[in-house]
Specification:
The complex is a heterodimer of chains A (192) and B (247). Chain A has 192 residues and is mainly alpha-helical. In chain A, 64% of the residues lie in helices and 4% in strands. In chain A, helix 1 packs across helix 2 and helix 3 packs across helix 4. Chain B starts with 5 loop residues before the first helix and ends with a helix. In chain B, helix 6 packs antiparallel against helix 10 and helix 8 packs across helix 10. Chain B is built from 10 helices and 2 strands. The chains are: A mainly alpha (192), B mainly alpha (247).
Chain lengths: 192, 247
C-alpha cells in the first residue's frame, strides 16, 4: 500500500533517507514543471529542482503535518527559482520597456507572419520567446497567477513587494505577452 | 459608454475585480468583447507552452545527484567541529612526532623533555602511542577520501553542469594539504601520492564558481578519468579501513 506524504515525511524527519528518496521520486517531475515555467530553461530548472529538495530536506522539521507536502515544496521551488533569477540579475533583463506609454522593442525582431506559423512547433517557439522577454519578477508573478491561481496578495508576499506592485507586475507581463503574441491569434483577413 | 481598461480585462480573466460589471459590459460592448477574446487567445497560447518531459526516471536521476549532498548537508551540521578537532589532533601529533625525532637526532633533549619522555615511556608504551596515532590518521584520511570520492562522483556523473561545490571543496582542499604533508612525513608514499593527485582537482572545484559546466566540466571529468582517480581513491580508502581494523 502506498504511504501518504505525511507518513513519509514523518519517516524522513527521523533521518530515514529512503523516505526522503520516495518524496524526491514522487515529486520531481511536478517540481520540474514549476521550475521550468519559472526559469524558462531546462538547465536552470534542473538546478532549481535540486536546490528545492535540498532546502526541503534542511527545513523538513518546519513542515506542518496539516499542510500538503506538494504545496509546501511548490513554495520552496518558487523561492529557489526567484533566488536563481535574482542571482543572475534577470530582474534587470528587460527587452521591452515603456517609453512615453508606448511599448517599444529594444532589439530588432521579425514580426511573426501568420502564414509561417502553421506548425505548432513554430508557435511554441514564439510563445517561449515571448515568455523569455519577461523579466524575472514578471515571469514569476505571471506564472503564479496564471498557472497556480495564486492571489495577488500572496504573489506580493512571495516577491517581497506591495500588492499594487504585484498587480502591476502581472499587468505588465500580460501586456508584453499580448504585444508579442497577438499577431498570432488575430483572425486572418480574407480578401475575397 | 466607458470601455473596460486593459487592467480590468486582465482582472476579469483571473476572476479579480468586479465580475458582474465586467460581464454586463462585455455583453453590451462588441469592442471590449473582441479585446477580451484576443486576451483569452493569447493567454490560451501560454497554456499550451511546452514543458520538456523529463521521463519516468527523472525522480531517480534527481535523487542520485542529490543523495550525496543530503549526506554532506546532514553530516556537516555535527561533523564540522569534529573535522576541525581531528585536524588539530593530527597537527598536534605531527608536531610531537617531529619534535621528538629532531630532538633525538640533535641529541639536545632538555632535562624536562627527557623526564617527560622517560615518564611517558613508563606510563604508556611507545608502541601503543604509535598505534593510536596511526589509527587516528587512518580514520581521518579514510573519512577524507570518502568525502572526496562523493565529490568526484558528482563531477564525473554530472550531465551538462554541476552545482556550487566551492565551500565543500574548500574544506576538502584544506584537509587534503594537512593529510598529504602528514603522509609524506610518515613515509606513506601511496597515500601521499594519491593526495597529491587529488589536490589540484579539489582546488579547481573550490575555484570553479557557482556552476561548473561546458568545457571546464568536460576537462575536469577527463582529468579525473585519465588519472583513474576514483579507482585509486576507492582502493586507498579500502586499504586505510583495513588498516584501522587491524590496529
Amino acid at each position: 500500500m502506498e504511504m501518504t506524504d505525511v507518513a513519509v515525511v514523518g519517516r524522513a524527519r527521523s533521518g530515514d533517507s529512503d523516505a526522503f528518496r520516495l518524496l524526491v521520486e514522487k515529486h520531481s517531475r511536478a517540481i520540474f514543471r514549476v521550475a521550468y515555467r519559472m526559469t524558462g530553461n531546462q538547465h536552470d530548472a534542473d538546478d532549481v529542482v535540486q536546490e528545492a529538495f535540498l532546502r526541503a530536506y534542511r527545513q523538513i522539521d518546519t513542515f506542518q503535518e496539516r499542510a500538503n507536502f506538494g504545496t509546501w515544496l511548490h513554495r520552496i521551488t518558487v523561492n529557489c527559482a526567484l533566488d536563481l533569477l535574482r542571482a543572475r540579475g534577470r530582474h534587470d533583463k528587460h527587452y521591452i520597456h515603456e517609453e512615453d506609454g508606448q511599448m517599444t522593442r529594444e532589439a530588432a525582431t521579425t514580426e511573426p507572419q501568420p502564414d509561417r506559423l502553421l506548425l505548432s512547433a513554430e508557435l511554441q517557439k514564439h510563445v517561449a520567446l515571448a515568455l523569455q522577454d519577461l523579466s524575472g519578477n514578471e515571469r514569476i508573478a505571471f506564472m503564479l497567477r496564471h498557472f497556480d491561481g495564486m492571489p495577488v496578495e500572496e504573489i506580493g508576499k512571495t516577491l517581497g513587494i506591495q500588492v499594487n506592485a504585484a498587480k502591476n507586475t502581472i499587468f505588465r507581463a500580460v501586456r508584453k505577452l499580448r504585444h508579442s503574441l497577438e499577431p498570432l491569434v488575430r483572425p486572418t483577413q480574407c480578401n475575397t | 459608454m466607458q470601455h473596460l481598461t486593459e487592467e480590468q480585462l486582465v482582472e476579469h480573466y483571473y476572476h479579480d475585480g468586479d465580475a458582474e460589471a465586467a460581464v454586463a459590459h462585455l455583453r453590451s460592448c462588441a469592442e471590449c468583447a473582441a479585446q477580451y477574446q484576443t486576451l483569452e487567445r493569447v493567454l490560451g497560447l501560454v497554456d499550451d507552452a511546452p514543458v520538456p518531459d523529463r521521463g519516468e526516471d527523472y525522480g531517480a536521476e534527481v535523487w542520485n545527484r542529490l543523495r550525496w549532498k543530503l549526506g554532506a548537508s546532514r553530516r556537516r551540521q555535527w561533523k564540522a567541529p569534529l573535522a576541525v578537532a581531528a585536524m588539530l589532533a593530527v597537527a598536534f601529533f605531527i608536531g610531537q612526532f617531529w619534535q621528538g625525532r629532531s630532538n633525538e637526532r640533535s641529541g639536545t633533549l632538555t632535562v624536562t623533555q627527557t623526564a617527560q619522555k622517560e615518564l611517558s615511556s613508563k606510563t604508556v608504551p611507545t608502541a601503543t602511542n604509535d598505534k593510536a596515532v596511526d589509527r587516528l590518521l587512518f580514520v581521518v584520511v579514510g573519512d577524507h577520501l570518502d568525502n572526496s570520492e562523493r565529490m568526484l562522483l558528482e563531477v564525473v556523473n554530472a550531465g551538462s553542469a554541476v552545482g556550487a561545490q566551492e565551500e565543500r571543496a574548500g574544506e576538502l582542499v584544506a584537509a587534503n594539504r594537512i593529510y598529504r604533508q602528514t603522509a609524506m612525513q610518515r613515509g606513506d608514499d601511496r597515500i601521499a601520492e594519491l593526495l597529491s593527485d587529488l589536490e589540484p582537482i579539489l582546488v579547481e572545484l573550490a575555484n570553479a564558481g557557482s556552476t561548473l559546466e561546458g568545457k571546464k566540466l568536460a576537462d575536469l571529468q577527463q582529468r579525473i578519468d585519465s588519472k583513474a582517480l576514483l579507482f585509486k581513491v576507492r582502493v586507498v580508502s579500502a586499504r586505510t579501513a583495513k588498516q584501522v581494523n587491524s590496529l
